Amino acid sequence: MKELAQKLENIIFQDPGNRKLRNWAHKGDLYNTVKSLYNAKHILLTTGFYILGSNTIETDGPPGAIILAKALENIGKKVTVVVDNHSKDIMIQGAKSLNFNITLKCLEPQTTPSLSCLVNKETTHFISIERPGQSVNGNYYNHRGLSISEYHAILDPAFKNATSEGIVTIGIGDGGNEMGMGSMARAISRYVKAGNLIGSTTSANLCICAGVSNWAAYAIVALLSSFANTILLPTKSELVLLLNAIAEAGAVDGISGKQEPTVDGLEQKWETGILQSLTDTATAYMEVASAK
Questions:
Q1: Which residues, including other chains, have CB under 8 Å from residue 58's CB and lie 6 or more apart?
Q2: Rounded CA gap, 119 and 155, in Å?
Q3: 3-state SS, residue 122
Q4: In b/e form, how buried is each residue of 35-62, taking b as 16+ CB within 10 angstroms?
Q5: How far is residue 169 from each of residues 148, 179, 202, 203, measured CA to CA in Å?
Q6: CATH of 2-291, one of 3.40.50.300, 2.40.50.140, 3.30.230.10, 3.90.1640.20
Q7: Measured distance CA(43)–CA(75) in Å, rounded
Q8: Residue 271 — pLDDT band, cuts 50, 70, 90?
Q9: Cα 150 to the chain's mean position, in Å?
Q10: Domain range summary for the chain, segments of one domain joined by +
Q11: CB of 42 closer than 8 Å to CB of 74
Q12: Chain segment 97-117, per-residue pLDDT in tens
């Protein structure tokens, strides 16, 4: 299973957006992440990265969050997805495209919810997927060094407190300015443009970095499929439906700023191709394992 995890990580570590992942990004936590999640009870999952000028969130994050939440619920876990109020319809429409009844907790931007407002007695994990993390000055920044603080609820204190309370925290990102990337702050400052300003200072117990954050979530589901011995990932056509649904609901490509079903300025074939590679790799592993 660890060998499969390494293969999946190699797939998602492709860097078509030239984010210089190999210079700063941590690698190797996928197996421990999935092993831990397989024994989870209730998972908090947050996403949503605001795009200035487009007045909405980007298409990186919501697909991964929806697909991961559905997979976890399919194996008996309870999941609450925490988002800003302005992201609500995007998440609902995206989940609906997969016939998934998503459980949301929506927050007002610039509020600071306590951990107790988010968790219940069964909460075991808190996952952040492509969610901005506080910089050294406490603000949230995009990759251009512009503040997006006013558009987001402040979840970092709750995330940090979760770690202190024994809740497993998992950070997923691709640019170094996401919640959970704090353990790589020194490398981010050195290798990411404006990294000393935009870099996240909020760390997680486990981190998964990828060329696109969605891909890390897909990789978690691919490995989770092997643990559960059933494919939990959507098909390529289902992913396209999901991307279309969130774009129609208002999400934009984070690089182009356009309301279209692409992610991070890449052709859609990157998103569907990575999904298919992960599915094929997990399926091949399961077939070999079942033949033994």
A1: 49, 50, 51, 130, 251, 252, 253, 254, 263, 264
A2: 13
A3: coil
A4: ebbeebebbbbbbbbbbeebebbbbbbb
A5: 23, 10, 11, 8
A6: 3.90.1640.20
A7: 13
A8: very high
A9: 21
A10: 2-291
A11: no
A12: 999 999 999 999 999 999 999
Going through the chain in order, the beta strands assigned E by DSSP cover: 42-47, 50-51, 56-57, 78-84, 104-107, 123-129, 168-173, 206-209
Element (H, E) at 21: helix 21-24
Classify residue 166 as exposed, middle or buried by CB count within 10 Å of its CB (0-12, 13-18, 19+). Answer: exposed
Token pair 């052709």 in the structure block, residue: 267
Query: What percentage of residues in the chain have a pLDDT greater than 70?
Result: 100
The closest of 126, 129, 130, 150 to 140, measured between CA atoms, is 150
Amino acid letter, 189: S
| Residue 85 CB-half CA count within 13 A | 7
Amino acid at 60: D
Q: Give buried/exposed letters for 116-141 (b at 16+ CB in 10 A, else e).
A: eebbeeebbbbbbbbbbbbbeeeebb
